[in-house]
Amino acid sequence: MSPRLDARSKLLDAAARLFYAHGISATGIDAVIAEAGVAKMSLYNNFESKSGLVAAYLQARHEEWLELYRARLGASSDPVGGVLAIVDAYLDHAEAGYEQGFRGCGLLNAAAELPAGDPGRSIVAGHKAQVEDLLREHLESLTDSRQAAALAEQISFLLEGAISRAGLEGHSELLHRAKSLITSMVRAL
Predict the structure, then answer these.
(1) DSSP letter at 32?
(2) Whole-angstrom Cα distance, residue 93 to residue 104?
(3) How far is residue 31 from each of residues 14, 15, 35, 67, measured CA to CA in Å?
(4) Euclidean distance between CA atoms 46 and 14, whole angstroms
(5) What's the CA gap between 90 and 74, in Å, rounded?
(6) CA nearest neighbour of 45 among 91, 2, 82, 99
(7) Max alpha carbon distance in the chain (Å)?
(8) What span, in angstroms and rounded, lies between the C-alpha atoms of 72 and 175?
(9) DSSP string of 46-66?
(10) Phi-psi region of 141 (alpha: psi -120 to 50; beta: other; left: phi over 0)
């Protein structure tokens, strides 16, 4: 691995831990650099600013979730399993063993700190839209496209509420309850 890629990875890993544990606003660049164990210029050689680092963190978080989803999807054999792969990817994230404990969806937490119009909010919105699209695609194999779209929206809202509340409580129990509700909804089709 080249030193530049190594420094970028170290910075992103450090940012992910600190941003999730303490928030973006409360985490200064110097803390990220110290946590990463790299020179200050490494930050500016890899990211144009803290905003660039935040955008890269959000994109990496999205990609991390997609990897969890794809792994779960590989073990499913039908559209119901596809929907549940999405739920299980959220559960995998919630049960990842964070240093400071589970605090809810890292993407939503970040978006709450970013001002309207910030490019990072677009990354988060894109992630949430993609999740709903994936739900709809799986559901279209079970019902007509109009009902699939409506149910995908309902499941998306249920997941968002469950992950937000689970973050407040600091554990994944509400996500397990949401999975049970979603399973019943989908199996009823």
Answers:
(1) H
(2) 9
(3) 9, 9, 6, 28
(4) 14
(5) 16
(6) 2
(7) 57
(8) 16
(9) H-SSHHHHHHHHHHHHHHHHH
(10) alpha
At 130-164, the pLDDT tens digits run 999 999 999 999 999 999 999 999 999 999 999 99
What's the CA gap between 111 and 24, in Å, rounded?
10
At 89 the pLDDT is 97
One DSSP character per residue, 119-140 reads: HHHHHHHHHHHHHHHHHHHHHT
Range 148-183 burial, b when 16+ CB lie within 10 A, else e: bbebbeebbebbbebbeebbeeeebebbeebbeebe
Token pair belonging to 51: 């905003």
Give the start-end residues of each E strand in 9-91: none
pTM higher than 0.70, yes or no?
yes
Query: b or e along 27-49 (b: 16 or more beta carbons within 10 Å of the residue's beta carbon)?
Result: bebeebbebbebeeebbeebbee
- Please, which residues have CB within 8 angstroms of residue 17's CB and are 6 or more apart in sequence? 35, 99
